[in-house]
Write a structure and sequence with these properties.
Elements lengths: L26 E2 L20 H11 L5 H12 L2 H6 L2 H8 L3 H13 L2 H10 L3 E4 L7 H4 L7 E6 L30 E5 L6 H16 L3 E4 L5 H11 L4 E4 L13 H9 L3 E4 L11 H12 L2 E4 L7 H11 L4 E4 L7 H12 L3 E2 L3 H30 L13 H12 L4 H12 L3 H13 L7
Parallel strand pairs: 4-5, 4-8, 5-6, 6-7, 8-9, 9-10
Antiparallel strand pairs: 1-2, 2-3, 3-7
Length: 446
């Protein structure tokens, strides 16, 4: 299995596995041998190597795309079967001209799968396949999950682990063995943000990230970048989802930011092959991944018609997640979308970390059950004993905060005042910790 270095720097992947090893994590492992023939995909997620190679081959064909590939594979019995299927049958399934389908099939048969694997290796990245153990489980649950994720992910530093060794893939806040272990919240908004919007995105990003919540956004200018940078400033994790390939990161002026995200233990990911250019149609599709990775979506500023509103609406209507919007000035176009969402009732108004925690409390409780089921299932497959909770080392301060908050369940303000008085923490820090504790199911809504 190929991984970035412990420091998370790009292009410094290495592996100590032999070509015959199996990957316990569910990623598509890549042999670093210089010969194309030895760049092999191994059996993962119940699918044999030829099927995974065929999946990648079809995704490398211009015009096919992730959604068409996934739907056609389901109808035809798999991507490998699509390579052998009669053109007429595929044309009927796709409702496309036979000549077009014949060209796609021939292009898939000729696709340079080994070359794409070398490119992702050279970037220090990995491919994660839908159905594999460490494919993000929340993302897998949406109606249209990406068949493959191209991903560059950093690692926790040696100082942050018990044994002084880097942990597995620090991105997934989304988990090993199919079990998320860090809550993920999306912060999105307009590229043309006001000073108020940028300040609010930074305040929410810092507060949530400092409390252990991972921030996911789209890597765009404006609100997205403010949220990513805020998480990095407090040493938190953040995830950027691109509307282009990892080799054509967009916008180009955020190249350094993307490197810092990976180096800081977060990740950048895409559903598109390495060399895919950014295209307008990719960004609405990118939005569903942002929503799919998160427990809830916070829209900081958005015009009446914006990608941020699409992301939040997807969260509510298709993904069963929470949508929140920051109320803004009624005379600012950047606030129009948020005010509309609040007025229509599908997004809750939020103006503080405590209010975000209240909105996400129910979702967090549901997540805990899903986590425990996933952990128990993974443990049974591996012959291990399932552990309680989220495998997080017990923090005495967290335990005391829970005790104080539980003693005053009906008076949130009094509970925060009591925690501030006893612990010496600032009110914003306390509110952020309460958000995380509710997301983890350790503190009820109250």
């Amino acid at each position: 299995m190929t991984q970035p270095s412990a420091a998370g720097s790009i292009g410094q992947a290495s592996t100590g596995r032999s070509p015959t090893d199996r990957s316990p994590t569910g990623r598509i492992p890549i042999d670093r041998s210089p010969t194309p023939e030895s760049n092999r995909l191994r059996e993962l997620g119940g699918a044999a190597e030829p099927e995974l190679r065929a999946r990648l081959a079809w995704l490398l064909v211009p015009g096919v795309g992730p959604t068409r590939c996934r739907r056609l594979a389901a109808a035809a019995g798999g991507c490998e079967a699509m390579l052998r299927a009669p053109v007429g049958e595929l044309a009927a399934l796709l409702r496309r001209a036979p000549d077009t389908v014949r060209d796609w099939q021939q292009a898939a048969r000729r696709a340079n799968v080994d070359g794409e694997l070398r490119r992702i290796t050279d970037l220090g990245g990995v491919l994660v396949s839908l159905g594999a153990e460490d494919y993000p489980p929340l993302l897998a649950s949406i109606p249209d999950p990406p068949p493959l994720l191209w991903m560059q992910a950093g690692h926790e530093t040696a100082a942050s682990t018990d044994k002084g060794e880097p942990s597995e893939n620090a991105l997934f806040a989304l988990g090993q063995g199919g079990a998320p272990n860090v809550p993920v919240v999306a912060i999105v908004g307009t590229r043309r943000a006001s000073a108020y919007g940028l300040e609010t995105a930074a305040r929410f990003g810092e507060g949530l990230a400092a409390s252990g919540v991972a921030i996911v956004s789209g890597g765009a200018r404006g609100i997205d970048a403010a949220a990513h940078r805020a998480a990095l400033r407090v040493g938190g994790r953040t995830i950027a989802v691109l509307g282009s390939g990892l080799g054509r990161r967009y916008p180009p002026e955020h190249d350094r930011l993307f490197d810092e995200i990976v180096a800081g233990g977060g990740a950048i990911l895409s559903e598109w092959p390495i060399a895919t250019e950014p295209r307008p149609g990719h960004f609405p599709r990118r939005n569903r991944i942002v929503s799919g990775l998160a427990l809830g979506v916070i829209v900081v500023e958005a015009a009446r018609r914006s990608g941020a509103l699409i992301t939040a609406r997807l969260a509510v209507e298709e993904h069963g997640r929470e949508a929140m919007a920051v109320p803004g000035r009624i005379d600012m176009p950047q606030s129009a979308g948020c005010l509309k969402a609040i007025r229509e009732g599908w997004a809750a108004p939020v103006a503080s970390l405590a209010e975000i925690g209240e909105q996400l409390a129910g979702v967090g409780s549901l997540l805990v059950g899903a986590i425990e089921r996933a952990k128990a299932d993974h443990a049974s497959r591996k012959g291990l004993r399932s552990t309680d909770g989220l495998d997080r080392r017990e923090d005495p301060l967290d335990r005391r905060i829970v005790e104080i908050a539980t003693a005053q369940p009906s008076d949130r303000a009094a509970a925060i005042d009591a925690i501030v008085s006893e612990t010496g923490l600032g009110a914003d820090v306390v509110a952020a910790r309460l958000v995380r504790l509710r997301l983890e199911g350790r503190l009820s809504r109250g």
